[in-house]
From TrEMBL:
SUPFAM superfamilies referenced in this protein's UniProt entry, alphabetically: Trypsin-like serine proteases (SSF50494)
Name under which the protein is recorded: AT hook domain-containing protein family protein
Species: Immersiella caudata
Database matches in InterPro entries: Peptidase_S1_PA, Peptidase_S1_PA_chymotrypsin
């Protein structure tokens, strides 16, 4: 939980710190929808679960895998060189049915309401439980551009993009939530194979 972050700007989204030096993993679409919109000079502001505010710059972006890496460039109230709380990336995908939890930022505005500005009432960070449901049949695990190949059933909302999917027993990162299947309601994400290849 301490290694989860939320975007503190208008864009809703979540990230995970994957190295104590301040390396952050999120979905590419949380940083830029397309390659042409990507601005590597832009500073992104995020909040750790502890409330620590950090500034970060995007250092890698992959629209096909739907993954981005940011590096923390400044942190409020921390001395230079202090380690950040981080989670370890799993070596391999879990077995189907493995229990997971998802730490994400649902977003403060109800985007399913016809009226603008209606509050969701959700907490800034929400922890939900579920399970790994395998990969979509016939989909390349490295291609998450249209919809994530990983399937899970942890509860998520609009701002959960980039939220870490963590194996319940080991505490290791096995994926990040990215989208959902409107036809089936199944939550989708980017699997650990794509994460490891990207990192």
């Amino acid at each position: 939980l301490q290694a989860a972050l939320v975007f503190a700007q208008a864009e809703a989204g979540t990230a995970a710190c994957i190295h104590p030096s301040g390396l952050l993993l999120t979905c590419a679409h949380c940083v830029a929808e397309t390659q042409s919109e990507l601005d590597l000079a832009k500073t992104h502001y995020l909040l750790f679960a502890s409330g620590t505010l950090v500034a970060a710059k995007c250092i890698a972006w992959d629209g096909k895998r739907d993954l981005a890496l940011l590096l923390i460039t400044a942190a409020q109230g921390l001395t230079a060189g202090d380690p950040f709380p981080a989670m370890e990336i799993a070596e391999e995908p879990p077995k189907v049915g493995t229990k997971l939890f998802c730490v994400g930022h649902p977003g403060s505005e109800d985007l399913e309401c016809e009226e603008e500005g209606v509050a969701t009432g959700y907490d800034v960070l929400h922890v939900s439980r579920g399970a790994f449901r395998g990969y979509a049949e016939g989909q390349d695990v490295q291609d998450n551009e249209e919809i994530g190949a990983l399937m899970h059933d942890c509860w998520t909302y609009w701002g959960h993009s980039g939220a870490p999917l963590v194996e319940f027993k080991t505490g290791k990162l096995v994926g990040v939530h990215s989208s959902w299947d409107e036809e089936t309601g199944m939550r989708r994400g980017v699997g650990v194979e794509a994460i490891r290849e990207f990192v």
